[in-house]
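Format notes (please read before filing issues)

Several people have asked whether sequences and structure tokens are stored in separate files. They are not. Every record keeps both together, in the order shown below: the sequence lines, then the token lines. Line labels are part of the format and must not be stripped during preprocessing.
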Amino acid sequence: MPAAPAVVLLSGGLDSATTLAIARSEGFAPYALSFRYGQRHALELASAAAVARALGAVEHRIVDIDLRSFGASALTSDIAVPKDRTEADLATGIPVTYVPARNTIFLSFALGWAEVLGSADIFLGVNAVDYSGYPDCRPEFVAAFERMANLATRAAVEGRRLRIHAPLIAMGKSAIISRGLELGVDYGLTLSCYDPAADGAACGRCDACQLRLRGFRDLGRVDPARYRAP
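Then the structure lines:
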């Protein structure tokens, strides 16, 4: 039997790369989906392409949408990306790097492609432990979207129940990294930074960089990503 197709949301960061590796390890044929949505860190798309190739995605598509039309996020407008926040800051409130409804939008596109592919499975790398307070990274959101998907699609009405897989949802960053290393993920290909330099070097100071660096540090490992000189 051929492997069942699965759509995997792939940003090019650490979490989504691990999720792609997990989907493949579970026997799915992964179709990677990325977005050029007006993000200031669009360099992540080159990382997404490299990860998709390295991890054997059947196909990798990049879809263009413009969330800068709405702004209201440090990732899609001229709002400064927060730097050097403390652990207490990271655990409190919703930061300005939250992009309104981003995961809802991305999952909707993934749902459409899944229907076309005849796939019953969508993977995304959201995490409710080290997640910087984003409301669309919570288990409640994932479960709610899955319920909606099974009401809103022809596939579900005709009997193909759709599943939203969030394999990292309850894992800390160090556990995610450890699992990815077991599966052969080359984290040197990934880019997690919200405010990278023009050459792709990570800032080392934004929330995403801090969480990532802490994960490697907790494992006693060196992050293979490139960082700007201090």
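For reference, the curators noted about this record: The mean pLDDT is 95. The domain at 5-218 is CATH 3.40.50.620 (Rossmann fold).
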